[in-house]
Design brief:
- With 238 residues, the chain is α/β, with parallel strands linked by helices.
- It contains ten helices and six strands, in the order βββααβαβααβααααα.
- It has a six-stranded mixed β-sheet, with helices on both faces.
- Helix 3 crosses helix 4 and helix 6 crosses helix 10.
Length: 238
């Protein structure tokens, strides 16, 4: 069958910004998918406790007013999402997140911000297996031209993205995209989830080193690109 035809947990966050160490959760979703078919979903709307910048509202459409009146406290949302993901990992079910280093790092920062148990402490191990279509696609089709955002890569693999920057739609698309990539690239499908996780750690580190070298050649001698994947523990939490 292969891991890509078994149960997968798609995961996505929509947030107040683009820095995972500082941004707050606004919405989150976890979607159960098997063989490309959605089996169930859980969704969260959070009151992040800080103003949602206009550029973030323009992306996901959640205003301060809606977050304040309909959202649950940010701490409750972060804790609930963490428990769902940890339950999946305990069962050996892969968690699929597009650009996982962003979403998992942001979740880790939120947990620390609110004084909640980190993912590693809850699980008793590093969070795994994680499947990141962004990291995989960038490795198996390295020289393809064009953008690598979720919308563009979904188009490349023929995956329908119903509503970009809606957490549930993005989570579902990520899980379906993981399957589509494995269907196209047998060397990905043939790996077990644990080995695929390990390979992604290597692939992400290689990409980061290459990108850092590129930035330095282009005139920024101090450029640093963090090659840690899939989770960077927050060094500081505002």
């Amino acid at each position: 069958m292969g891991w890509h035809r078994e149960l997968l947990i798609g995961f996505d966050l929509e947030t107040t910004g683009t820095d995972p160490q500082e941004a707050r959760i606004v919405t989150g979703a976890v979607v159960e998918v098997r063989a490309g078919q959605e089996l169930g979903r859980r969704e969260w709307l959070a009151d992040p406790g800080v103003p949602i910048p206009p550029d973030a509202v323009a992306v996901h459409g959640i205003t301060d007013e809606r977050a304040a009146t309909e959202g649950r406290p940010g701490a409750e949302v972060a804790d609930a999402i963490a428990e769902v993901l940890v339950s999946a990992w305990r069962s050996g079910v892969p968690v699929v997140a597009y650009n996982a280093a962003f979403d998992l790092t942001l979740l880790a920062a939120e947990l620390r911000r609110h004084g909640l148990a980190p993912l590693r402490d809850r699980l008793g191990a590093d969070p795994a297996p994680v499947i990141d279509p962004y990291t995989i696609d960038r490795s198996v089709d390295r020289y393809r031209r064009g953008k690598r955002n979720l919308e563009a890569v979904c188009r490349e693999y023929g995956v329908v993205l119903e509503s970009a920057h809606d957490a549930s739609s993005d989570a579902l698309a990520a899980a379906r995209l993981a399957r589509a990539i494995a269907d196209r690239h047998a060397k990905v499908a043939d790996l077990g989830p644990a080995e695929l996780h390990r390979r992604q750690v290597e692939w992400y580190a290689e990409w980061a080193a290459d990108f850092q070298s590129f930035l330095r050649r282009k005139g920024d001698p101090t450029a640093v690109v963090d090659g840690t994947w899939p989770l960077r523990e927050p060094a500081r939490v505002p």
